[in-house]
Amino acid sequence: LLALDQMGVRWGDLPRGLDKKLWAAVDRNAESFNAQDIANSLLALDQMGVRWGDLPRGLDEKLWAAVASNAKDFNAQNIANTLLALAQMGVRWGDLPRALGEKLWAAVTRNAEDFNAQGIANSLLALNQMGVRWGDLPRVLSEKLWAAVERNAESFNAQNIANTLLALNQMGVRWGALPR
Q: What is the pTM of this model?
C-alpha cells in the first residue's frame, strides 16, 4: 500500500478488482501487523484518499485491534503517523473504542519525550482534528506535550509552527493555562 501511495495512486483510481484484492490482503494480514505495519498501512490508506467509513465491513474492527495490540510498541513516529492517519481518515476521538483510546493516550505519553519537530506538530494537529480539547488531556500528557513543543521549537520549520499554533489554538489552549 505504501508503495502505491508513494506512486501517487488514489484508492478510487485502482483498476477494477484490484481494490477488492488489496482489501482482502489487508484483512488477511491485519492480525499479524506489527507497529510499523499498522502505522504505515493506515498512513498509506489515508494518503490514498480512503476515509474510515469507506472501509469494508469488519475491516475497521480488525484495524482497531491491530492498533490496540501494537500501541504498546509504537515509537514516536508510529504514534504520530497513526494519529495523523486516523484523523485525516475522519476518525474522531470519541469514535475510538474506549480501551483503544486509553492505549493511544499511553503511547503518546510514553513517546512524547522522543517527538521531533514534525512528530509533535503532527500529533497535536491530529489530536485537534480528532476533536480533542487541551483540557481533556490527562495532565501528565499535556505537560509532556508542552515540553515537547518547547524542546522542538527551535527546530520547527514554517509548517511545524503553523500546525502547532493552529492545533494549540483550536484545542482551546490559552496562554495563562500553559504549564510553566
A: 0.88
Q: Which ranges constitute the DSSP H helices of 95-177?
A: 98-111, 117-129, 139-152, 158-170
Q: Measured between alpha carbons, how far is residue 155 from residues 57, 74, 116, 126, 180 in Å?
A: 42, 23, 8, 20, 20
**Which grid coordinates are listed for 41?**
498501512
Beta-strand ranges (E) seen in 23-81 are none
Which of 102, 15, 86 has the alpha carbon at shortest distance from 51? 86
Nearest to 117 by CA among 161, 165, 175: 161
The whole-angstrom separation of Cα 63 and Cα 89 is: 13
pLDDT digits (tens, 9 = 90+) for 72-94: 999 999 999 999 999 999 999 99
Cβ-based neighbour number of residue 48 at 10 Å: 20
